[in-house]
Design goal:
The chain is of the alpha/beta class. The chain contains 6 helices and 13 strands. It has an 8-stranded antiparallel β-barrel. A 5-stranded parallel beta sheet has the order 2-1-3-4-5. Strand 12 and strand 13 form a beta hairpin. It is elongated. The two termini are 31 Å apart.
Length: 301
């Protein structure tokens, strides 16, 4: 039994893979048809998963609204009361599904802070009756554009203000209950207050937490096939920038500028989702260079 079943048209496979990675990074178990084991009957495997999944996310697009298969899966999910719809293209939904609140993922590129992705996560949470193991970043207002550079500074500044004034740290549905330790080597007089010597949130030394060797799998490739036992190497360029290379040609070489939110280290800009979850042991990496190849792996101790 999976937490999330993703229904989509075959032409939207890349978008489905991106969503599977993002939801899996939050700790939910995700099923989609690439997980069918060789020898299983295709329709039987899908029917079994569709009937047992705790929630069914349907990705509506020009292709999927014309797909009888997707519409049938959406109908089954609706009958079971587990339908969580989302649009990935601007389309007119089939009549029977127009009353259902639908998440907008039309411009979503994999960033966990996107308002549409946040809405989708809320829908999944409400449907399965429990929060994910790891919370996504705070939902932004509809008129705000996500900027990791100033958002990180604002979050840390608020946290420090509360900590200094009241001796406590902020908690809530989108925050960890304990502050993230700052490596001793990253503390500097320029980034501390005169009384508490608490860092004011300058993004420094993040590369040291990320560099290393990762072992994992390519679970989707827009130009190829999935592949297991893929080695990925992260090398340091400076304190906030790393270079990612791999023995898998499809992953290429990508330079990533880092930022940190809670216990996750993220790509601060560009079109490459990069999420390192420091709460996992060993740390777990979700990496999707240019949103074309989906990689999941763990850092070697």
């Amino acid at each position: 039994m999976s937490d999330v079943f993703i229904s989509y048209a075959s032409e939207d496979r890349e978008r489905a893979a991106r969503l599977a990675i993002a939801l899996g990074a939050l700790g939910w178990s995700v099923w989609w048809d690439r997980k069918i084991v060789t020898g299983q009957a295709f329709d039987q495997a899908i029917e079994r998963e569709l009937e047992t999944a705790k929630s069914v996310v349907v990705l509506w697009s020009n292709h999927s609204i014309a797909s009888e298969w997707v519409r049938n899966e959406a109908a089954v999910a609706s009958e079971r009361g587990v339908l969580v719809p989302a649009t990935i293209e601007s389309v007119k939904l089939p009549l029977e599904f127009r009353r259902k609140q639908t998440a907008d993922l039309i411009h979503w590129e994999g960033e966990p802070s996107h308002s549409g992705f946040q809405a989708l996560c809320e829908g999944v949470t409400a449907t399965i009756g429990g929060a994910p193991l790891r919370q996504p970043t705070p939902r932004q207002g509809p008129k705000l554009r996500w900027n990791p550079r100033w958002a990180w500074a604002a979050i840390v500044t608020i946290a420090i203000a509360v900590a200094v004034g009241f001796g406590v740290y902020p908690t809530g549905p989108w925050r960890t209950t304990m502050p993230t330790p700052v490596p001793q080597g990253d503390r500097s007089e320029a980034g501390t207050t005169s009384e508490s010597k608490t860092p004011l949130g300058a993004v420094t030394g993040l590369a040291d937490l990320v560099v290393g060797t990762y072992f994992g799998d390519v679970i989707a490739d827009s130009k190829g096939s999935p592949r297991s036992d893929v080695v990925l190497t992260v090398t340091k360029l400076d304190r906030t920038k790393v270079r990612v290379t791999s023995d898998y040609p499809g992953l290429g070489t990508v330079d990533v500028t880092l930022t940190r939110i809670g216990n996750q280290i993220l790509n601060a800009d560009g079109d490459t989702p990069f999420i390192l979850d420091l709460e996992r042991n060993p740390p777990a990496l979700v990496y999707d260079p240019h949103s074309e190849v989906a990689y999941r792996g763990n850092k070697r101790p």
